[in-house]
């Protein structure tokens, strides 16, 4: 497939003769970025609200109830306005350029990774053959942002937090990548759109999950590693608000701090999308199958149903992460390391071996 | 062999216990919250809760028993007596000092000071914490009526007396009848 962008393709069809190609490309890129950032920001706002409601109800309380009227739906909007209006503090002893750059780098990395995500079978920002590889590479870059933030803050808490993040990511990047090898071996592509299309049999239930017995353990390993990658509890050692004030973001406030927050939830969304596409059938579900059968591939209804299916699956992944966060106690840093190196990595290798043998035989 | 067994048991345990925990939290997730939306709705407060005081002013006789019983002197009261009737000026309770010990309630001979169930009284200024428990200042309507009646009666009596004295054939000139009365009880209401 081409490495193009759906908006560029559309623009080339619509644009009059004589418009230079670079202008079209630039317009398409700007439109794509605007849509991606807007879409993800709204999603993150919803996820923050959901997190507060889920945590509240798990603890037998209500969570936000007033802002906006219905169950505090506008709480995230109010929070956002508050964060925008807050004073932009930069500590005197900090390394100012690094301090300012760190959240921006994290955001850029995570949005770069999200660019490989298809919104529906034919609406995508970039159609990369190495989509998953790009996602892995870009999302690992956020670690650099964390380390930068910790170092630039000139605070021991921040530095502890970022060192933990570095150690944790090094430990979990390995099982994270290896466990993703299992579904890749089963379907044989790194392109997210293609991977989803390859799971469309069995009335939309030909998910990777059901194709090979080694995919389920691989999914559990992947999910655990993804929790650690996104710094979510029980692996929130880089932040660990009960020991290090707020970890690497101790010195941040206002809009810069909200960038870290945005990054965390965007990363959660990204991981859930990857899990949905490579383990849980991506766009495919019986409903998508029905829409495809009755309206035809590429019809608006099919695209809409497919996109919504992926969104629902991703939201379910995010909900699962929240559920786990409010269920499990936090683990110590040595337990985190031990789990990564002693359990996840060998088990992931075992899964790859088993899945490989299974694929070779059947 | 034993180490391998322990290893896989650990893996199994971590998965199984996570699922158990998720079942428990999931149950709580679906349950109705036990908290209430505080300012809008409130949990029932025990009857004998020691909250803000309230005073049954009609019963109060300005005996100062509560003020004397108070270990930190936060009750101050002031009233003018007109015979039996009281003209209230103030009855303040300083909640900056009050420790809600309820010692002021027991000595009251008329059982007129009580502690209620209201506990929230946030203010913008410390001075607002000095509550005035009076529901009205000056004299009660009934007391005023009673006093007027008494005055009328007194005047009648005096008039009768004077008449009787005059009838007796007063040798001495009648003293100007000075009612030993009040310096205008209607002054403040």
How would you explain this protein's 3D organization?
With about 350 residues, chain A is an all-alpha fold. Helix content of chain A is about 70%, strand content about 0%. In chain A, strand 1 (about 120) and strand 2 (about 125) form a beta hairpin. The longest helix of chain A has about 40 residues, at about 20-60. Chain B has about 190 residues and is α+β, with helices and mostly antiparallel strands. Helix content of chain B is about 30%, strand content about 15%. Chain B contains three helices and five strands, in the order αβαββββα. Chain B has a three-stranded antiparallel sheet. A two-stranded antiparallel ribbon of chain B has the order 1-4. In chain B, a hairpin with a 2-residue loop joins strand 2 (about 75-80) and strand 3 (about 85-95). The longest helix of chain B is centred in the N-terminal third of the chain and has 29 residues, at about 1-30. Chain B is rod-shaped, with a radius of gyration of 34 Å. In chain B, about 10% of the residues are buried. The mean pLDDT of chain B is about 85.
């Amino acid at each position: 497939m081409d490495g193009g962008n759906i908006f560029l393709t559309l623009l080339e069809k619509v644009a009059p003769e004589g418009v230079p190609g670079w202008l079209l490309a630039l317009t398409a890129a700007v439109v794509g970025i605007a849509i991606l950032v807007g879409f993800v920001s709204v999603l993150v706002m919803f996820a923050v609200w959901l997190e507060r409601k889920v945590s509240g109800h798990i603890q037998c309380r209500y969570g936000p109830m007033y802002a906006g009227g219905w169950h505090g739906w506008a709480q995230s909007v109010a929070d956002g306005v508050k964060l925008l209006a807050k004073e932009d503090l930069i500590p005197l002893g900090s390394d100012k350029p690094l301090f300012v750059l760190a959240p921006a780098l994290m955001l850029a990395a995570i949005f770069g990774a999200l660019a490989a995500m298809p919104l529906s079978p034919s609406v995508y920002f970039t159609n990369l053959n190495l989509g998953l590889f790009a996602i892995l590479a870009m999302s690992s870059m956020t670690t650099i942002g964390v380390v930068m933030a910790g170092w630039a803050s000139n605070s021991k808490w921040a530095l502890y937090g970022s060192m933990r993040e570095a150690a944790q990511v090094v430990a979990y990047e390995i099982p994270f990548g290896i466990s993703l090898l299992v579904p890749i071996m089963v379907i044989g592509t790194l392109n997210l759109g293609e991977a989803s299309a390859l799971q469309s049999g069995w009335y939309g239930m030909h998910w990777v999950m059901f194709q090979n017995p080694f995919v389920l353990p691989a999914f559990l390993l992947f999910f655990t590693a993804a929790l650690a990658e996104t710094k979510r509890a029980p692996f929130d050692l880089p932040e660990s608000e009960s020991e290090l004030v707020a970890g690497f973001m101790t010195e941040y406030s206002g809009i810069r701090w909200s960038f870290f927050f945005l990054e965390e939830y965007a990363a959660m969304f990204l991981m859930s999308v990857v899990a949905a596409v490579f383990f849980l059938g991506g766009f495919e579900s019986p409903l998508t199958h029905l829409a495809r059968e009755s309206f035809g591939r590429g019809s608006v209804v099919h695209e809409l149903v497919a996109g919504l299916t992926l969104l629902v699956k991703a939201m379910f992944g995010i909900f699962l992460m929240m559920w786990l966060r409010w269920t499990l106690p936090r683990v110590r840093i040595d337990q985190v390391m031990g789990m990564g190196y002693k359990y996840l990595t060998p088990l992931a290798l075992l899964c790859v071996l088993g899945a490989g043998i299974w694929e070779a035989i059947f | 062999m034993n180490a391998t067994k322990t290893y896989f048991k650990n893996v199994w345990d971590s998965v199984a216990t996570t699922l158990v925990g998720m079942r428990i939290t999931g149950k709580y997730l679906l349950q109705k919250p036990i908290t209430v939306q505080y300012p809008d709705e409130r949990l029932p407060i025990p009857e004998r809760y020691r909250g803000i005081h309230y005073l049954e002013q009609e019963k109060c006789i300005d005996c100062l028993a509560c003020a004397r019983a108070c270990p930190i002197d936060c009750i101050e009261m002031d009233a003018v007596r007109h015979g039996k009737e009281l003209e209230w000026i103030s009855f303040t309770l300083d909640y900056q000092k009050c420790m809600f010990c309820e010692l002021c309630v027991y000595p009251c001979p008329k059982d007129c000071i009580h502690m209620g169930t209201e506990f929230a009284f946030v203010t913008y200024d410390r001075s607002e914490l000095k509550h005035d428990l009076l529901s009205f200042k000056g004299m009660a309507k009934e007391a005023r009526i009673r006093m007027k009646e008494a005055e009328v009666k007194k005047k009648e009596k005096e008039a009768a007396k004077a008449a009787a004295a005059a009838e007796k054939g007063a040798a001495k000139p009648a003293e100007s009848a000075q009612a030993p009365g009040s310096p205008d009880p209607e002054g403040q209401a």
